[in-house]
Amino acid sequence: MIYIILGILALIYFITQPLIVVIYFKIKYGKRVIIQYAPMLGLLRTLSQSRAINGDAFQALSVLIKNNRQADILVTNLLFRPLIVFLKPNYYKIFMQQHEAYTKFPMIVDKRLVSKGMLMEGGAKWKQQRKLLGAHFEYNKLINLIPMINDVAEKKLSGLPNSIFPAMNLASSITGEVVLRAFFGEDIAKLSLNGQDPSLCVTQLITRFGQLITESRFFQIKRALLEEKVFSLFPRKIEKDLFELNTVMLDHMKKAIKGRMEKLKNCKDFVHQDYLDVYLDAYLNKNDQMDPPITEDEILQQSITLYFAGTETTANLVTTACYFLAENPHLQQEIYQEILEILNGESIITAKHLQNLQKVTGFLMECLRLKPVAPMLISKKALQDVYIMDIFIKKGWYVNYMVLSNAQNQNYFPNPKQIDITRWKSDGTLKDSTIDPFAFVPFSAGGRNCIGQYLALIESKIVISKILMKYKLKLNEKLIKTEWIAKITYGLSNQDYITWEAR
Ligand code: HEM
């Protein structure tokens, strides 16, 4: 009996602890702070409620921030811990400079997938990974991928099944194949997963994960209590299926990597064709100089990380872009005209064309501004007590930055709700140089910014240009409700929003 009472008391303590921090912040900082608290769920409840009420997971937060522009911070909770979300760029800048003082919240609960990849790792291991792969993501290297991206987009766009189908399926099938071919090579890109396109599996997996994390109360509470054991104790069918899908994905990738490793073991002159070769070369031939050493599990998880990070994110951007084009026929026509002029009858898009597609670039930046694929960063847990300017963060608290808050701030972007492609230069930077560069950071900034941002933009520009060359996009009038959901990324739900009319 005593243990039950102690257990209940401990639970009450863990549940109320963040509430005390929330109240403390409000008393200490008054209007500088917006507060939100929900036992155990916190931010996750705000997102799921907003989706249910508004059809948009981030609308409630956007409105709250808009109505409290004087606020510097949102203080809420993430499971059992306080979560401090900064809203102003000056805080964000310092937060990013201190990135080594934090570890990341394990969004994808299943530790087998991405915990050892670059997105989640920290310290010496992360530094080593970024150094090993960094050169592969530089613009000058990435432009070599342009012919392949043209190829993939052309192939996928030539065989559309009907005039109405989800843009997300098409987009992720393109972005997934691009990542597979670029980083893992043609041999691995050709493999199918149980007879299915592996990229569609990634989208399915991320959407289902996201829905469990942000919408299932049962899963959220179970996760708060059990952490990574959530899949093994009292799993429901949906959790079992998801765990099984992860296992299939891991086995698929493991087999592919093993195959390549066998080939490379007997190879005398090692020429790096792709990212996997770089990693396997370091593992097979230089691991004694690596500190900490590379493991096979790391190679597997790094591969899944790049596959996830490179497929779903860019696919969301392309999907949002298709939706806004369908919704704004005049803008679509204006952008189409630019593409016709710049390509001037050529069908293969080159680096030079991309540089000149100023309206396409401006449009994609506006899509990121209005519907950022990452409206918040991954929450980070403080490894030590830290100050971010005048705000004290205690070891163990979560910290985040709301990218969305300034992306639609009137002070930075006049008429913030309006798509205005003229705000941007052709290199994707803002024309108005007086705007704080940290006010809009869709790819984050500083040492832990998005390593794939140039790839994402090159790819999206090519895919959107190719789509408009072939199709006129219209909204599917039969679909009444548009839903913007928090998967792990943020974007449209996977529905038939668009009618694809061949030109
Ligand atoms: C529209 C597309 C994309 C957006 C909006 C985006 C956004 C972001 C953001 C905001 C971060 C920082 C996450 C955090 O620290 O909380 C990030 C990190 C990262 N992204 Fe992207 N990303 C995109 C595409 C890509 C692509 C195509 C790849 C390449 C395969 C990629 C690979 C990564 C990796 C590996 C990291 C971790 C970098 C590190 O911590 O050193 N991303 N991305």
Provide structural commentary.
This protein is α+β, with helices and mostly antiparallel strands and 503 residues long. It has one domain (2-502): Cytochrome P450 (Cytochrome p450), CATH 1.10.630. Helix content is 53%, strand content 9%. The protein is built from 20 helices and twelve strands. The strands form four sheets. Strands 1-2-3-8-5-4 form a six-stranded mixed beta sheet. The chain has a two-stranded antiparallel sheet with strand order 6-7. Strand 2 (73-78) and strand 3 (81-86) form a beta hairpin. It is globular.
- The fourth-level CATH homologous superfamily is Cytochrome P450
Give the count of helical stretches.
Answer: 20
Biggest beta-sheet profile: 6 strands, mixed
CATH topology: Cytochrome p450
Report the CATH architecture.
Orthogonal Bundle
CATH class: Mainly Alpha
Q: Residue ranges: pLDDT <50 for 5 or more in a row?
A: none
Helix proportion = 40-55%
Query: Which strand-content bin applies to the residues?
Result: 5-15%
The main sheet orders its strands as 1-2-3-8-5-4
Envelope shape: globular
Report the strand count: 12
What's the domain count?
A: 1
Radius of gyration in whole Å, from Cα? Answer: 23 Å
* Structural class by SSE content: alpha+beta
Bound compounds, please?
protoporphyrin IX containing FE
**Average predicted local confidence, pLDDT:** 90
